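So, does this match?
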Amino acid sequence: MKTDEFDYELPKELIAQTPLEKRSESKLLVMDRTTGRLVHEHFYNIINYLNKGDALVINDTKVIPARLIGEKEDTGAVIELLLLKEIESNVWECLAKPQKRLKEGTIISFGEGLLKAEVIKIKAEGITHVKLLYNGILMEILDKLGAMPLPPYIHEKLDDKDRYQTVYAKNYGSAAAPTAGLHFTNELLKQIEEKGINIVHITLHVGLGTFRPVMQEDVTKHVMHTEEYIVTQEAADKLNEVRKKGGRIVAVGTTSVRTLETILSNNNEFVPCHGETNIFIYPGFKFKAVDALITNFHLPKSTLVMLVSAFSSKENILNAYNIAVKNKYRFFSFGDAMFIGDLK
């Protein structure tokens, strides 16, 4: 299976640069998982595709203002760090740019010394381990000094940091937003609950595993980076109850899919757990947990377009993407959405 098989043509003007004024007014392309039949909708009508007794699984991770611009203390050279995840107390894995200017022991200063980072390990692919040095509460300092880690294809400034957070984000830890959830408003979630749909919170902190490009020609040789996930006893119990009663598990975003499928790949039911996953889902994968999926439109040749192709088929997904292009849908993080499931 070749990476190039998951490519498609996308005009640059369809890459959404800013979020819509109202989250739920984005377009929604509804696709029958089996037949590929398509229906054009708006996201505020997602409730029509959710049934009483279903579980809507949302990832409540919160994006860290993780992009930091600082200076080397010895030379004043400008260094950019993107914090990815904390691997032990105050020691963070990050992407450093330009990494070639760094060596073990280098001190980088941010905000005139309000925060400092000491380089303790240089790794491949720009990955660097740093020890953060500061006084006070780290998240408060990052709120003051850091910027939202918007993807490189977004060139517009984001005026409101909260627009790169879901309305239900609560657990800091992500280097990118779980963007399928950006379409929900509190009002829409309330309507969904009132219909008798169970809203289940899980957490997967988005890191390199989700957004690192596939560099291998052969899909099967790509190795995913690990990402931390948490599923509580309450969430596991609710998911098991929904399945027992015949309800569907509707995952919001590929991060929710990867968390749920990781758990069921090792168990016959949902269990509370806290661990790391590097699960890579591509065509041929046998889904055990997820019955329907809400997702955005993903980058060509990415692990995410491979995942949604596995959930339906490569042919169905690429056809849907081509039709979305013809109908001027907005793509990627601030773009429009898809619902993929079995339609009546």
In short: The chain has seven helices and 17 strands. The domain at 67-145 is CATH 2.40.10.240 (Thrombin, subunit H). Residues 79 and 98 are 6 Å apart (CA to CA). The longest helix spans residues 254-266.
